[in-house]
Hints:
The chain has helices at residues 69-81, 116-123, 133-146, 166-169, 175-180, 190-204, 258-262, 281-288, 291-296, 301-305, 310-333, 345-350, 352-361, 372-376, 403-412; strands at residues 4-11, 15-23, 30-38, 46-51, 54-61, 95-102, 112-113, 151-156, 213-218, 222-228, 231-235, 340-344, 383-385, 395-399. It is globular, with a radius of gyration of 21 Å. The protein is of the alpha/beta class and 419 residues long. It starts with a strand and ends in a 7-residue tail after the last helix.
Amino acid sequence: MKKKIILAVNAGSSSVKISVYTAQLGEAPVQIAEGSLSGLTAPPPALDYSRRGKTVTKDGDVRDKADTQRDAFDVLLKAFIEDAELPEINTKDDIGIICHRIVHGGDFARPQLISDATYAALEKLNDLAPLHNANSLGIVHQCVSELSGARNVACFDSQFHASIPEHIRTYPINQDIARSNHLRKYGFHGISYAFITRATAKFLGKKPDEVNIIALHLGSGASACAIKAGKSWDTSMGLTPLAGLPGATRSGSVDPSLVFHYASDVGKLSPASTKELHISRAEEILNKESGWKALTGTTNFGAIAESDDPEKRLAFDLFVDRVCGFIGSYYVSLRGQVDALVFAGGIGEKSDRFRGEVVDQLRCLGFPAIDEVANRARMESVVTDIGKKEKGGQHVLVCKTDEQFEMARSCAEDEDFWS
């Protein structure tokens, strides 16, 4: 079977990132290009483009060309096709598979070839991931309509968490209503956690189903995950990505009654609602008007971590506290059988100060002290050990997670997506 070109599309709330791979069935895909367009909600939008690991464009000006995620997809696809030094893609017809990151996949436990029925099922989940799902499905619809020669595959952030035990995923509410309305913990960032699990296992010289880790995907959206024998055991996000840790604009878990004391109109639909997407004021407040933005006025955690301003210090200390709380809970849930604590995501990979303060607080659990030199150094490898070496002890690792590669890998291994 000949090689295929795979596009891995990751549509965020304010950006679109696409990685281009060549792939052979059953083999690891090889990245040949990558493009990202950011700033859709904080103009002007900027284009970054690299080919075979070398930067071609950095912060390219694409104003007046991209206002939406669908516009961003068009700009990126045009960049690939018009690149004379990327002969693998000359036309849209050269693309064989397009895999899409879909945040909320409901009860889907594995990637799905997108059909009319699949698309309809996913549309019903839009309200549960209002910052992401609708944007991703808009690009899916665009690809189905305009790239008819490609097969479209949905990869779900929730699918990795299908293994969470019933006693952990169940909410203590009327179970007849819970089942009829699909109200349970789903969990997210699962594509990242799948990559982290594989990469960590390889680093430790184990098989994926032999590792127990506590993994942290920390960025604008942040979560923690207890991984037992290579499978998700528990995670901080729940029915929606709002639960658990705070983020750039999300509150994370709060007293459910808080929002009713916050504003009088929380039950009404937000002006941002559309006929396809219904968002209450409560959801808008907790998803888009909370987190670092509410505490400090900025969503840039790097600036927060470097500042001694009291408001920023409060946000920093609050995040350290919440993250350590989940780690402690998961350590007990895993009965102390933890091979490694793994930091990933933009904050997890870049903030040495944050990692240092978290690990210092966790010394009581037996984790090694931070190796200050390793912690401050540039992370060159996929996985880096930043803990002081202790014979037979636990590890503190940083993983450069790669959601696009994980999606492309899952498509390259599944013959159903090639026929």
